Amino acid sequence: MKKHINIFLALFISAFMSACNSDDDGAVTDNPDYDQYGEVFNEVPEPEEAVIYQVNLRAFSEEGTIDAVTARLDHIKELGANVVYLMPIYPNGIENSAGGLGSPYAVRDYKEVSSEYGDLEDLRNLVEEAHNRDMAVVLDWVANHTAWDNEWTTEHPEYYETDENGNMIPPPGTNWSDVVQLDYDNPDLQNAMIDAMSYWVYNANIDGFRCDAADYVPEGFWTKAVSAIDEIKDQEMLMLAEGGEQRHLRSGFDLIFGFNFFETLKEVHNGAPATEIQMANAEEYQNVYDEDKRVVRYITNHDVNLSDGTPMELFGGTEGALATFVVAAYMKSVPMIYNGQEIAYDERLEFFTKTPIDWSQANNEVFEEYQRIIAFRKNSTAIEDGQYSGYSSNDVAAFTIQNDEETVFVLSNIRNQESNYLIPQQLQGEWEDAFEGNQMSLEDQITLQPYTYLILQK
C-alpha cells in the first residue's frame, strides 16, 4: 500500500528522529510514553477512495455528544461515507470567547475531551464502532493557535508570538481575537504539538487528522508532524490539510482543500462560464507530483454553511445543489459531505452554539440520490484514479475520467434553464447511462433540462 512519503525519505526521517532521541533539544521520540489502545485498522481508504462525512457535534444531534454520533453511524455508512471527520472535541476557551458556547477552534486543552461532548471512553467507543463498519475516524486539529486560557499560556509563554511589548497576540492578519498565535520558531513547541497529536492516535486509536488553518503553519513543522503520526501505527493514516497550498502535499499530507474550486462553483452559478470550473481544477492540481494526492471538494462545510449559506441557498435549491455536487464529487476529487447536506437540510448550522438538525425533516429522495452518486463513484475505478479531460461549455460542466478499464463521461447542466451542449466528435457514439442502465447514442448535440446531469460510461 501507498505510504505518505517514499521509502527513502521515510527511512531518512526515521533515522533522523531516532538520532534526536539522545539529543538535549527535547525532540519527540519514536516511542512516546503512551500505550496503544485498540486494534490496528486496515480499512483506511486510500486517499483517492475517501468519501468524507463532516460532523459538527453541536448541530448533529439534540444531545450534542459523541455518543449521539455513534448512534447514527449506520446513517453515515448507508450514505456511502468511509471517513468520519469530527470537528474539535476538546474543551474550548472561555477567556476572550467569541460568544455563545465559544469556538471549538479555540482549544483550551489539547489532551482532553470536552465534557460538553462526553469523555475519552465515548470517543474510543465511537472509533471502535466506526471501525466495525469499515469507516475511519479523523479528528480536527488546531495547530496554529490556542485559546487564551490554554495552560500553555502560563506554563510555556515562550510557545507564543508576542508584540514589541512582549504581549501575546492573535494570529496576525486575522480578526480571530479569541485565540493566540503560536510561535513555530520554537522547537519545544513543535515537539509538544506532535506529542499532543500522538496522544489521540495512541489513546483513542484514531486514523488521522484534518489540520485546521494549515496554510498558516510552517511547512517544516508539518513535514515533521505528518511523518511522526504516520509512524505510530502499522496502518495507513489519513492526513488532510485544511489549506490550499500544494506545499502540504510535499509535507506528506494526502489531501488539500479546494477553496478556490468552491468559490468558482459559486461564481459559475451566478453566471460565470462553466469552463471556469475546469480551470480551477487545473490550477489546484498544477505541479502536483504524486498521482495519489487529491483535492477535497465540497459544496458546503461548517464555515461556508454559516457564512455563505446552505447548498440550496447557494446553488438553486435541491436540484441545483445535486447538479453541483456531482461535479465536485467526480472531478478528480475527494468529496466531503457536511452533516445535514445529504437530507437537503436547508437551515444554517451554528457551531458557536447548539443548532441541532431536525432529522425528521429529511428529504429521503435527496438522500437516495446522494447514495447513488457516491455508490457509483466508489464502484468506478476511473472516477477514483483515472485521467481527467475537460470539455465544458458555457452552461454545462462536462468532463471525462478514463483508465484502462472504463471511460466515464459526466455532463451537468449547472443552469436553471434548458441548455444545449455540442458533443465533441471524439465523444460521439454509444454510451451506457450509469444510473439508469440504458444505452444512449450521442450524436452532435444533446439538450439538458435545468439542473440535470448525465453520468455515462463505456
Automatic annotation (TrEMBL):
This is Alpha-amylase family glycosyl hydrolase. The keyword Cytoplasm does not apply. It comes from the Bacteria. It holds the Pfam family Alpha-amylase. InterPro entries: GH (IPR017853), GH13_cat_dom (IPR006047), Glyco_hydro_b (IPR013780). One of its GO terms (molecular function) is hydrolase activity. Keywords: Hydrolase, Signal. Residues 54-377 form the Glycosyl hydrolase family 13 catalytic domain. Residues 1-19 form the signal peptide.
